[in-house]
Specification:
The chain is an alpha+beta fold. Helix content is 29%, strand content 22%. It has helices at residues 3-6, 50-69, 94-101; strands at residues 15-16, 34-41, 73-78, 84-91. Strand 3 (73-78) and strand 4 (84-91) form a beta hairpin.
Amino acid sequence: MPLRVWRTDEVTPLSPHPNDPAPDLPRPPAGTGMEFLITFTLTVPPGVAAQAVQDAKAAEAQRTRDLAGQGHLLRVWTLPGAGRALGLYQARARPRCRRSCGRSPCQAG
């Protein structure tokens, strides 16, 4: 049976994200770790003050710069849909990726 019968492809357009790391940041050598694609959806609960949202987004931007500077965050793209993003991370193993990423400022408790 041909492969095309078993497989369905879905193309998702990627757009620039304001927190995408600069391309000139030092990157770990290829093959030195596992790469992880992590999707994010930012949903602001009703009633949250605009200043709190701005502060959380500023802290999130700083966290992405820190992770990029450490070589853990390689890229960030905006996905279709409100508040959706895709990040490309690199770590030696999945537990290391979780420790490296930690809890982001916009992550729910």
